Amino acid sequence: MRAEIEKDYLRSSDNVFQVIYAQDSEEEAFAPETWGKSNPNLLEMSKSAYEKQLTSLKQDFADNEREGTLATFVNKTLNLWSRRFQNSYLSLDVIQKAQKADFDVHGREVFIGFDASQSNDNTSIGFEYPYLDGKTHMYRVEQHSFIPFAQAKTLAAKSKQDGLDYAELEDQGLVSVTNLASGVINKQQVYQWLVQYVHENRLRVRGIAADPNLASWFVKMIENYQPDWPKPVELRPTSFYLSVPTKDFQNLFVNGNVTIPDDPLLVDGFNNAVVVEDKGGAVKIDRQNRTSDHIDTADAIINAHYLAQDYFENFHGDDYNPMSDMTSDEKRNYFKAMFGGGK
Predict the structure, then answer these.
(1) How far apart are CA 98 and CA 94, in angstroms?
(2) What is the structure's pLDDT at 320?
(3) What does the alpha-carbon distance between residue 134 and residue 202 come to, in Å, rounded to a whole number?
(4) Is the predicted pLDDT of residue 13 greater than 90, yes or no?
(5) pLDDT (tens digit, 9 = 90+) per residue, 223-262?
(6) What is the pTM of this model?
(7) Class of domain 92-329
(8) Residue 67 CA from chain centroid, whole number
(9) pLDDT tens digits along 260-288
(10) Residues ≥6 apart with Cβ < 8 Å to 151
(11) Handedness of CA 7, 8, 14, 18 (dihedral sign)
(12) Radius of gyration of the chain (CA)
């Protein structure tokens, strides 16, 4: 039939009537009792067969929603085409189930991802802490963002545009509003906050990943002023580099191996993210609304996961040096234990 449609000018199928049954509205995707509109065979079944088939469709709907592939179900089963059902990265239900309030980061190993801003975007730092819950491999992810308001003119306007009360989030310690009167991001403020946070919590930094296009200043600051930290990995924001950590983190999240704090900005970032696929099948996340849907926090976390994903596999490259994972204090203690005394 595809050939006939593509060569319609031949008029070879003028005696064929084609019809596509579809739902009347997007809202009906959430009303299983209406699915007979797009699946008329349901209406011809016996009551028992109808209930069995509808139960199966409901399960397909739930599975796709949980896995962030609701667009596939809505498109193929209900014949609806809409950006509203574009493949979400994580469903809101999955995100909310991962929320765990209590987690002590003090003294933990951490992988840091950095997502620098463009114009009206927030600048976000993502923290990923691998840990064990019994014998289960777990990852705790948290964020801190820096909020500009130059384009929006005022913080109140920025909050209204994004649908988030940034003043309240700052009071909760989840964000820092730029301290420049111009409303643009203050790079020194970002750097100094991170250094202070790492030192106050005695974090053992195991890796840092950042986009070299927008964060070269951040990379240079770390390299020049934090010699005890690992050299930042320059991670280009393309599906070629991000596909594996993006999929891996999604699977971990869906399977309950990720926990997050009660953080509206982090929830918003994951909830706004959709999956985009290139011609080769590699994926990355993007946002639906280019103006108000922010995914900076999710981008920062995935950058961190690029480095953290093999943590429990004890995977190291051929040039791995175990001393690279040690802080200055740990190195001193190591040599002291090996060779005795000394200051």
Answers:
(1) 7
(2) 62
(3) 24
(4) no
(5) 999 999 999 999 999 999 999 999 999 999 999 999 999 9
(6) 0.73
(7) alpha beta
(8) 14
(9) 999 999 999 998 898 888 888 899 999 86
(10) 119, 120, 183
(11) positive
(12) 25
For residues 203 and 327, the answer to whether their CB atoms sit within 8 Å is no
CB 229 within 8 A of CB 221: no
Specify the pairing of strand 136-147 against strand 123-133: antiparallel
Identify which of 261, 268, 125 has the alpha carbon closest to the alpha carbon of residue 190: 125
Give start-end residues of each CATH 3.30.420.240 domain in the chain.
92-329
Nearest-angstrom CA–CA distance, 92 and 55: 23
Say whether 214 sits in a helix, a strand or coil.
coil
What residues are paired with 207 via a beta bridge?
111
**Which of 88, 89, 66, 65 has its CA nearest to residue 77?**
65
Closest CA to 242 of 206, 208, 285: 285
User: Which tokens in the block code for residue 110?
Assistant: 């951490």
Distance of CA 3 to the CA centre of its chain: 41
- d(CA 166, CA 264) in angstroms, rounded, equals 10
Which amino acid is present at 121?
Answer: D
Six-digit token string for 11:
């008029």
DSSP-derived secondary structure letter, 255:
T
Contacts of 275 (CB under 8 A, 6+ apart): 68, 87, 88, 89, 246, 283, 284, 285, 286
| DSSP-assigned letter for residue 23 | -
CA proximity to 71, closest of 31, 8, 128, 26? 26
Are 271 and 92 in contact, with CB atoms under 8 Å apart?
yes
Residue found by looking up tokens 């990355």 in the block: 284
Alpha carbon distance 286, 263 (integer Å):
20
The backbone region for 163, taken as left when phi is positive above 0, alpha when psi lies in -120 to 50, beta otherwise, is left
79 C-beta neighbours (distance < 10 Å), count: 14
Tell me if 299 sits within 8 A of 274, measured CB to CB.
no
3 state SS of 297:
helix
